[in-house]
Amino acid sequence: MKNIPPETSPFFPRDREWHPPAFTPGYKTSVLRSPQRALISLEGTKSEITGPVFGHNILGEFDNDLIVNYAKPGEMAIGERILVYGRVLDERGVGIPGALVEFWQANAGGRYRHKKETYLAPLDPNFGGCGRTITDENGGYFFKTIKPGPYPWPNGVNDWRPAHIHFSVFGHGFAQRLITQMYFEGDPMIWICPIVKTIPDENAIKGLIAALDMQNTIPHDMRAYKFDIILRGRRSTFFENRKEGN
Amino acid sequence: MVQPLTYFKESASQTAGPYVHIGCTPNFSGITGVYETDLGSGSMVNDKTRGERITIRGFVYDGAMTPLKDALIEIWQADADGFYNSPSETRGKADPNFLGWARQPGDMATGEFVFETIKPGRVPFRDGRLMAPHVTFWIVARGINLGLNTRMYFSDEEAANAEDPILSRIEHRVRVPTLIGKREGNTVTFNIYLQGENETIFFDI
Ligand SMILES: [Fe+3]
Question: The pTM is what?
């Protein structure tokens, strides 16, 4: 890891017109779970600009290979084999090293391994559905998995989720904490999904669609999808002469 | 024309969904054998951790006063002396026996979350004034489109709370108690209300 002095300035304000609002009645669960009062703005203090660091020691050998990390020895998960790769950057375009990226998804048939999951598609005995990795010094990451299937969900009577992978990302400050979802280029289901449609800006949605990248396939093995994740940028520190602590 | 400002936009948030536990606490969700333990699970404290042991417990309530059973809560806090265990902490070195971060799912049957931690010390605000002891909360769940940020202060810190730069500038004083965890013995109860008369104050941090 490069020895860069840690940054201590606050983050760019979050653009709340770009993110989905809390109250999105097309996604019914949000109705009773959306705060109704204005958020109180809090310019980053130490409590927001700092954040935990996770070392590579937490990672197991197959944490970034969902094809095998739950499979019985010698077996593999069923489905279209894919490589998902990209970088975790901030809004300045700076790669974020050491970022913990966690991901979870349904199996090839669109079924999650979860007690409360009721979809009739079968479980794959060799697929758990979780993985994680930590970005390299340039913010790069990758993992291997199978392409998740779309699935119906209880919202409208005929609502379906497009194929997607959930992502949870830690940057360097707790204020950068983000959960999002990755979609797949060319999927017609994206544009009719009530959860996708919570995002008001079409360009913001496009930013969540991974591109099929035939240059980075593993020949005779798996196709690649490129998915960059952007976290909040930090303000410049031109004026850090303001009195702060000590 | 002027030079373009070449900034990217933050990736848009999407709900954590009902199965956030598969990714973040797989052992809790019944997926064993992939990770040895769930990250951030268990007590935040070991024998050598400095500070006063406390237990934080509470529920996250929706607008129908029903506790969420699928929420995931993360907390981030300073050590007993007010230092964060983070490279961006430049004032001093935090207790090496205290990470300051933890993650807990609400109980699948009741929704209750529990954190075994220590009471944090005071941390300076940007202008140098001390903030009252507090724990930063981040809440995600199905139906929450962008993770919610709030803070828990402590009921046994009346004097410090009164001079806290964040608490003292909240216009609607009647809402301030939504940020105060109620301490009884070593247990601090902090319920989070997403809506309603007692809607918790959430911050745009
Ligand atoms: Fe999903």
Answer: 0.96
